[in-house]
Specification:
- By secondary structure, this protein is of the alpha+beta class.
- It is built from twelve helices and four strands.
- It folds into two domains: 74 residues, 3-Layer(aba) Sandwich (Glutaredoxin), CATH 3.40.30; 130 residues, Glutathione S-transferase Yfyf (Class Pi), Chain A, domain 2.
C-alpha cells in the first residue's frame, strides 16, 4: 500500500464495526482515504455492488477491489500497510495470533449473538427477554474481563482483540439507559480497560459520541415500531 493507492471506506457513523476499521487504519498511519457515509435504510448502489452477499458496512475498497467484514478488513490492513514505526495489529508468533483471532471471533459469534446482538436485544426488548439479555451480556463481558486479567490490553500491547471490542463501549450508555443497569458495577476492570483505550487518539477519534449513539438507537427503534418505556 502506498500514497497513490485509492482507498474508500463505506461506513455508517454509528457502526461499531466500521469504527474497528477506522481504528486499525489510524493505528497503521493511514490517514488519506475517502470516507463515504451510507444510509443503512437505503443502501447505495456502490455498497450493493461491493458487498452483494451481506449488503452491509463496512467495506474497504482498495484500488477498486472490495474487502468486507470488519475483522477481515483489520487483518487485511495489517498485512498490506507495513510502515516503519507503526505497530503490528497481530502478534508475531503463530500461537498468539491464533489466540487473538479466537477472542475476536468470540466477540462476534453470530450464532450466539454475543456482544452486539445481545446489546441489541437489550435495547429492543422489555420484560423477561430484556432481563435474560442483560444476564447474557454480563456473562459474556465477564468472560472477556477474565481473559484481560491484569493486563493493560488484551495482548499486553494494544492490538487486534482491543480493536474488536472497544467500539462497543460507545453503545454502553444506550444499553445501560434502556436496560436500567450499569455494566461497570459488574465488570469494573473491563470498563477501566475501555477508558484506557480511549486515551489513545486512534481510538477516541474513531468512536462516535455515546449520546449520539443513544439517539440513533432510539431513532432505529422508532423506525421498527419499538415503543420506549
Amino acid at each position: 500500500m502506498n500514497e497513490k493507492d485509492e482507498l474508500i471506506l463505506l461506513n455508517s457513523w454509528a457502526s461499531p464495526f466500521g469504527a474497528r476499521v477506522r481504528i486499525a487504519m489510524a493505528e497503521k498511519g493511514i490517514n488519506q482515504y475517502e470516507l463515504r457515509e451510507e444510509d443503512l435504510f437505503s443502501m447505495s448502489p456502490l455498497l450493493l455492488k461491493m458487498n452483494p452477499v451481506h449488503r452491509k458496512v463496512p467495506v474497504l475498497i482498495h484500488n477498486g477491489k472490495p474487502i468486507c467484514e470488519s475483522m477481515n478488513i483489520v487483518q487485511y490492513i495489517n498485512e498490506v500497510a507495513v510502515f516503519n514505526g507503526k505497530p503490528a495489529l497481530l502478534p508475531p508468533d503463530p500461537y498468539s495470533r491464533s489466540k487473538a483471532r479466537f477472542w475476536a471471533d468470540f466477540i462476534d459469534q453470530k450464532d450466539r449473538l454475543w456482544v452486539y446482538g445481545t446489546m441489541r436485544k437489550i435495547t429492543r426488548n422489555r420484560g423477561e427477554e430484556q432481563v435474560r439479555a442483560k444476564e447474557e451480556l454480563i456473562e459474556t463481558l465477564k468472560v472477556l474481563e477474565r481473559e484481560l486479567g491484569e493486563k493493560p490490553y488484551f495482548g499486553g500491547e494494544f492490538g487486534f482483540v482491543d480493536i474488536a471490542l472497544v467500539p462497543f463501549y460507545s453503545r454502553f450508555y444506550a444499553v445501560e439507559t434502556l436496560g436500567n443497569f450499569r455494566i461497570e458495577a459488574e465488570c469494573p476492570k473491563l470498563v477501566a480497560w475501555a477508558r484506557r483505550c480511549l486515551l489513545k487518539e486512534t481510538v477516541s477519534n474513531s468512536l462516535p459520541d455515546p449520546l449520539k449513539v443513544y439517539e440513533w438507537v432510539l431513532y432505529v427503534n422508532d423506525k421498527f415500531g419499538i415503543k420506549q418505556n
